[in-house]
# Entry
Amino acid sequence: MDNSVLTSEMLIVFGLLGFAIILFVFELLRVDIVGLLMMVLLPLLGVIEPQDALAGLSSNAVVSVIAVMIIGAGLNRTGVMNVVASKIIKLAGRGEKQIMLVVATVVAIISSFMQNIGAAALFLPATMRICRRLNISASRIVMPMGFAAITGGCLTLVGSSPLIMLNDLMASWWANNSEAVGGSQFVPLELLSITPVGLVLLACVLVYFAVFGSRLLPADMCEIDEDCMDKRLQEIYGSVVGDGYELEVPLSFRPKSLGELELRSQFNITVVGIAKNEGYVKNLAPVMDSVVGPGDVLWIISSKEKIEKVADAYGWRIKKQHEIFAEENSPDESGVIEGVVIPHSNLSGHTMAELRFRDLFQVNPLAIVRGDEIIMENINVTTLLQGDTILLQGRWQRFELLRQKMDIAFIEEVKGEQFLPERTRSAMFFVVLSLVLALSFHIKLSIALLTGALGMIITGVIAADRAYEAVDWRTVFLLSGLIPLGVAFEQTGAAAYLAERVMSVVGTPNSLVLLLVVSMLSAFFSLLASNVGAAVLMVPLAMNMAVEVGVNPVVAGIAVAMSASNTFILPTHQVNALLMRPGGYRTKDYMRAGIGITIIYTVVLVACLAMFYDL
# Structure
């Protein structure tokens, strides 16, 4: 390959790439906005043509992601996970290690055909239910399940975003480097082309936790049992809470707003309901401006000791039992649940006041748990972050609406959730149909998956409106915006130039050393920025480096896409962030367990690529 000369277009591409990485690392903009920014700046700066900048919106990768999300939502709608949870207990028995292995394996299989964050969020309530039923500490199960979900994304080409993008990225490189590959045609990878490698990686993860899990995973968190939520409330309010109390306001009381009363800050209590006119008018999500007047009845969540202090301070009467709010307080009607702010959630980066949280969803936030910190004061104006856990009180039907609109993952199963078990066979039929079309008839992956998604909509497995809501449009626009960056990286010669500079530093390595370097760089960029950004940057770079030393460039591309899932050391990966609070983990827990997995993953991946593919 001829020595590349640094051009102004290359400098622009490197500048935009560095700009994007800074935005990712410091979270200065939402990830989807970063993608759209790249889509706009590239043609404005004359680096690529407008049609190339917009091509990502209709790419095979983006359409496949949309279809996978709809299929996953359809499966969830049937309630199939409830059946799977029961089957796991029946199959695995009651042993901790057996439960861990079976749960992790099942989640890995699910993750191979949908986004791994979706698989983990989908199966989390079932996993917590299994732990509760068998009195097993969730910390022993949740992290292995998460690592298996990440690794399971490497079993097929639709399990993770980098793998979904891989064929498109490699095809783009191939079109611009026909001389380097001797004018041969690019042959896209098939759905199961990487499965042998993925199976070996998954087996290593399972064996690792089976052998070392008892020493690596924390065991000092509270046991998960039927009173787990009561323990959460006790942790927040300082004593046994029960199901709340009703307090009657005397007729002599001068009206005041909740903000004026400062009940939360002074007494550590939460008002979750105000009834007026003898219960004919009820506010089940009161805000700071809500007025407490004479004759009102309040529904309050707190410990008995704090309730008594409030009653003494204001002359309110504590009722012996729920009367006005008896129906709303029924366990079948309402309750308390923990929700985790997942990556790309509409809650992330916003306050509940900005989103009019109580007004729109009629649920009451009781506290925000951020690491070891419990935030109770000013929670409405506290900016929510990825990984935050919100303790919520409200009606079960409102939680389901909240999950749909805000992309929040609940740790426990939402009671009263409406499933369609009669649609299970139909849903499974269209999943199988998609796979058969892709594998046996060699239909383009996006069309095959879209066929399954459309079939679920037509047969009523999932409503059309719900299908649109199931799509994480942030991920869609992130992919659509970063694909043109990869095109620019290749068309301007920036990838070739960077490959030559890297090769000048490392010399002329053999094939195994090259794959090792590529794998480590890809994992590093995935930890710093995102796995999608790492794939866009590293696929063309790795393929250019491979050509330099006579290695199959396709194998180098596979190494990048699979190494983008090697993100176990820190809770920066979406799945790790989701499971941090439910498992009771700290960053050091991920580091302790993740270092070994990272090393094993890298070594085994390189060995498998050399074994299963022609280098």
